Amino acid sequence: MKKLLTIIATAFIALSVSAQSEAGSFTLQPNVGFTYTTATGDWGKGTDGAFALTAGVEGMYMVNDKFGAALGVNLTGYNTSVETRKDDVIYSNYYFNFPVTANYYVAPGLAVKAGIALNLLATAKIDDYDEYDFGITSVKVKDMYKSTFFTVPVGVSYEFNSFVFDARYNIGISKVAKDDDGSFNALTFTVGYKF
After folding, report:
1. Within 10 Å of residue 186's Cβ, how many Cβ atoms?
2. pTM of the model
3. Does the first or last residue of the chain, that is N or C, have fewer Cβ atoms within 10 Å of its Cβ?
4. Which candidate, 54, 88, 60, places its Cα nearest to that of 186?
5. DSSP states of 156-186
6. What gap in Å lies between CA 84 and CA 90, rounded to an integer?
7. pLDDT 10s digits, 59-110
């Protein structure tokens, strides 16, 4: 039994080590996941957090065995909600998200990361879910938002057998609305596959 556990542990360590890319290599990683967003400042008053989808691809160059630099492009939802007595209202906002991150491997396959991200507004609408009529009314509100805003992504990822599990907290550092102060903060969880 001890030999079997030793063999399994050794295989796991070997797989973990092989999951991390070598110095000088470039990899591409498609990913998909979800975000949970809250709004801050005046813009966030009276709103609650909401879930949305995110998907994209990230390219990373390994500078050395411990440090990599990554650039990504994603379509990311930054949704918030308002619950009334009659219905639920979702502020559905999707952005093209361009994160640039530094990745430092603290252990085989385990990286901490931080960077900056530009977000370009793709769509913005309000979806009103009426619980009595069972209908959805959508209103486009793109003109309420600034066309860009910036976030600071900080997080951690773990690579195993070419799969990458990534968790980031995206801190909004610029205004999202034209007429109100406030930004979006979002937790993002993705699963990717590294080529």
Report:
1. 27
2. 0.83
3. N
4. 54
5. EEEEETTEEEEEEEEEE-S--BSSS---EEE
6. 11
7. 999 999 999 999 999 999 999 998 766 668 899 999 999 999 999 999 999 9
